Amino acid sequence: MLSPASRPVALITGGTSGIGLATARLLAKEHTVVVTGRNPDTLANARRELPGDALVLAADARSLADADQVVAEVTERFARVGVLFLNAGVGAMLPVAAVDEAVYDEHFDVNVKGQVFLLQKVLPLLAEGSSVVFNAALGVHRALPDWSVYAAAKGAVLSFMQAAAVELAPRGIRVNAVSPGPIETPALGKLGLGGDALAEWRAAVSARVPLGRVGSGADVAQVVTFLASPAAAFVTGADIAVDGGMRIA
């Protein structure tokens, strides 16, 4: 394990729960992790769970002012960022007829605007060899009912990722994405499904996944950690499915 002074810094948005926290735990073995979130309870939990050198910051992913504060704090403390995992996101299951302007704005502000501008603001801190990873979604590749606006926002993220990968390659910065399928995270509790309905959803989804189960945050974290590592030194512009084979089935 590297000494604290020599450890690279990994910045993870939405890093206080679910996939983000699982990734922070894994990256913390070799990195000093900085995580952001906006829920006071998950912020407190992350401070308890992550190592003592971790930095846990309250920030709303859609707020450019919060992004400025995060980057200022990271710049003052560390000066460099080696890994940026743009993970913060929201997703609501709604039929097209039920989508209103507030839902649309929230999805694109958090999932697209927040990610684009945080990357822009972090760019001066990214040196050659740095890795940027976006969190996309299975719904970009496989049409799913009630996920139209969420899929559209994540589709924008993937298109942006590919263009950024080409643009930043001359600087030696790699840009990739993961597209999780059904993953067991606290976000499932925000789908608006009751206990029985959620259990039925898990069973139905598991039956459609070739590997026969819903994934875990750790499943995605392992792939993000690979993309962040020297083992992926020749990988950029890639979108890796972490969905138990659901995209192809």
TrEMBL record:
A single Pfam family, by name?
A: adh_short_C2
Q: Name the protein family.
A: Belongs to the short-chain dehydrogenases/reductases (SDR) family.
Which species is this UniProt entry from?
Dactylosporangium roseum
Name by which UniProt lists this protein: SDR family oxidoreductase
Q: Which InterPro entries match?
A: NAD(P)-bd_dom_sf (IPR036291), Sc_DH/Rdtase_CS (IPR020904), SDR_fam (IPR002347)
Its lineage reads: Bacteria, Bacillati, Actinomycetota, Actinomycetes, Micromonosporales
